[in-house]
Every structure is written in structure tokens, then in C-alpha cells.
Amino acid sequence: MALSGVRARLRELAENRPVLVLAVAGMVAAGTAAASPLSQPQVRATMVEKAVAAVAQRAGDEPVRLELVWQGKDVDGDGRGDFCNPTGQEARGHDAYGEGEFGARRDGGSRRHEGVDFTARAGQVVAAPISGYVSKIGYAYAGDQTLRFVEITNPALRYAARVFYVNPKVRIGDAVAIGRPIGTAHSLQRKYPGGMTDHVHLEIIDQAGERIDAARVIVAGYRPPEGRAPHATLVAAD
Ligand SMILES: [Zn+2]
What we know:
The chain folds into 2 domains: 3-65 and 222-237, no CATH class; 74-216, Glucose Permease (Domain IIA) (Distorted Sandwich). It has 4 helices and 14 strands. The chain has helices spanning 3-16, 18-34, 41-58, 231-237, and strands at 67-72, 105-106, 111-112, 116-119, 125-127, 132-141, 144-154, 159-164, 166-168, 175-176, 181-185, 199-205, 211-212, 218-223. The longest helix is centred in the first third of the chain and has 18 residues, at 41-58. The protein is globular.
């Protein structure tokens, strides 16, 4: 199979079985360590060809397990993500109380959901979604002193984040680094009995002071298991 043939096969795989392409990337990268002159197109083609064949062969009966990784958007261009998933878990899907995504209908459609709900286990550690300082600790609902939020402001980025349903372990004025603990997740079962998924509600406020969809700056990705290279390696090698 010539290099162009390999490319076509990969393109086909990418469209139909994106997970397999990641597996191919991983195998090619693993092979790179063993066989050095990967700069030569023929060697590269052979290696990709072998990987495609191996993966295609086991497709269907042996699923490739990929790790879920959350990536934060880099808004200041320093090469590092500026946002992180506060619970490390998926966004809340549909439950008895509705949906957890930004803009979901609330109160019969009279208002919209202004945050993204990230599934949480009650009591789990909640991480700071951005670096900054604690600018406010407040109550989520008037008359309810159990459900609180922590607001973090980052004057350099000119972004702020509010993390709801947290038992804070920080105080106003504390500096917090992205990904570091700010508290623990509070159960929502008393407030919303009978089918609410416990979660942390995250609001991201942008430079214009508008609440934005956190799912746009905290994105789920998948990578091959430890020791294997991500998809980017394949793109670079080609
Ligand atoms: Zn919410």
C-alpha cells in the first residue's frame, strides 16, 4: 500500500471509526520508539499500514479503551489551558429535573440555564475551574444556607467563575490555582428529591461580563491508554 493509499484508508477510518484512528496513532507511536528512521516516508507508510491492518483485524471484537481527558481552552495564548472541569466528570444529562447543559429550559421555558452542570459525587473534592482569587462566597438560594457558591475572579484573564453547591474550603481573598481544591460537593437530594443528579453548577463569566457556555472552554477528549501517543502524533507524522 502506497502512502496515498494509507492516507485514504486512514481518512475512511477517521470518518467511520474515529476510535480506531487513535489506536493506530498509538501503535505508530509505539513503533516509533523501536524503529528510528521514521522520517523516511516508506518506513512511515509501512508502519501506518501495519497498524491499520492490525487494528482493522481486531475491530469489532476487541474494543479499544480510550482515556477521557478534559481540556481547557487557552485564552491568553501561553500554551496552557485556562479552564478545568471542577469535578472531572461528565456534564449532567437528562434527569427528573431537566437537562444540565447551557441554555436548557428552566421554569417551563421562562428562563434559561446559565451554567453547565458537571456530575458530582456528594462529598467529592471540587477543583478550581480557573486560577484567580476568591472574590465571593454566597448562597445559591435565598433562605437556604446549605447550598453555597464560590466565585473566583482572574483579573489577568478578565474571566470569573462561579461554582455552585460547594462546601467551601477557601475564604474570600484566597488565591487559588486552577485544578486545586476549593471545597467539596454538597448533595442536592434534599433540595431536589426524587431524581436529581448530584452535580456542581458552573458559570463562566467572560471579559464582557456575559455568562458563556462552559462546554465551549472545557472540552472532553479521548486519548489512547498510558504510553501511547495522542491523535496529534499521527497528524504530525503524516
Ligand atoms: Zn445548573
